[in-house]
């Protein structure tokens, strides 16, 4: 290892060219030079270390920007083409990451009449808000939930669920997932092979059997201070989230 004083460094011939070559070598070996590179900024080494992409303020207009594209997508992309047809809001400061803010993404989804995708589950948590239409549908862990504007539905991590629209009219909803956070933790996984027990065997299914009534969440968990004895022993989903899967606006 060699050492040198500041005065010696400044007298080195071709110092700028040598520094340029040094930085190119560091980058080529996928490393980062954690030291100040300019005298014009105090604590420049810290500034560089913290110079990661940051979310910036940005406005998406639902009626002007989002809905026209979704209306067009409904005509061009069918459920046979893709089980999902949503628009993820990508923050310009974080692109190309699929993130609306640093730890969450937001997606608008428009389902045409009677479109319901097969069950799936994933490690990110999700919540879904009804925006337009009364036929938004999400089946969560065997509870079939139809929701309207202002209603919020939980789909906790690793909970089997599916979503779409019931009835003869399209419906619009908004999803929020903590996928960017789970992605940073290298813990994202998706599953699509939903199975139920039939005659002692696990059989793949395209839809969940309804195991709870559609008003189950509200009826069992929706009254403050009142909870049936069996509810305390009942595990819903992974058992780490609220057992009440829908919160009604009215």
CATH class of the largest domain equals Mainly Beta
Number of strands: 13
Radius of gyration, Cα only, in angstroms?
Answer: 26 Å
Distance between the termini: 72 Å
Quick one: biggest sheet?
A: 6 strands, antiparallel
CATH architecture of the largest domain: Sandwich
- Domain count: 2
Supply the helix-strand structural class.
Answer: alpha+beta
Provide the low-confidence segments as ranges: none
Please state roughly what percent of the residues sit in beta strands, choosing from under 5%, 5-15%, 15-25%, 25-35%, 35-45% or over 45%: 15-25%
SSE series = HHHHEEEEEEEEEHEEEHE
Q: Please give the count of helices.
A: 6
Mean pLDDT across all amino acids: 89
Shape: elongated
Give the name of the CATH superfamily of the largest domain. Jelly Rolls
- Which strand order do you get reading across the main beta sheet? 1-2-9-4-7-13
Helix content: 10-25%
Task: Present the secondary structure layout.
Layout: H1 6-10, H2 15-28, H3 44-49, H4 62-76, E1 86-88, E2 105-111, E3 121-122, E4 126-132, E5 136-140, E6 143-147, E7 152-155, E8 161-165, E9 171-177, H5 179-184, E10 190-191, E11 195-198, E12 201-204, H6 216-221, E13 246-247
Antiparallel strand pairs: 1-2, 2-9, 3-10, 4-7, 4-9, 5-6, 5-8, 7-13, 11-12
């Amino acid at each position: 290892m060699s050492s040198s004083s500041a005065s010696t460094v400044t007298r080195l011939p071709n110092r700028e060219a040598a520094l340029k070559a040094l930085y190119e070598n560091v980058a080529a070996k996928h490393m980062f030079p954690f030291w100040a590179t300019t005298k014009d900024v105090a604590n420049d080494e810290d500034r560089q270390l913290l110079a990661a992409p940051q979310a910036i303020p940005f406005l998406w207009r639902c009626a002007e920007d989002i809905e026209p594209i979704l209306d067009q997508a409904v005509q061009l992309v069918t459920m046979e083409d893709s089980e999902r047809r949503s628009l993820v809001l990508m923050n310009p400061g974080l692109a190309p990451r699929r993130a609306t803010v640093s730890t969450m993404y937001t997606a608008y989804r428009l389902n045409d009449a009677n479109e319901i995708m097969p069950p799936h589950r994933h490690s990110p948590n999700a919540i879904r808000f009804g925006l337009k239409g009364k036929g938004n549908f999400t089946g969560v862990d065997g509870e079939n939930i139809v929701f309207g504007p202002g209603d919020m539905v939980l789909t906790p991590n690793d909970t089997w669920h599916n979503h779409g629209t019931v009835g003869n009219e399209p419906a619009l909803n908004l999803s929020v997932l903590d996928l960017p956070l789970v992605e940073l933790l290298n813990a994202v996984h998706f599953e699509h092979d939903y199975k139920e027990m039939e005659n002692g065997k696990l059989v793949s299914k395209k839809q969940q059997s309804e195991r709870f009534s559609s008003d189950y969440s509200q009826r069992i968990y929706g009254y403050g201070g009142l909870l049936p004895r069996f509810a305390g022993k009942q595990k819903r989903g992974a058992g780490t989230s609220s057992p009440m899967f829908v919160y009604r606006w009215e």
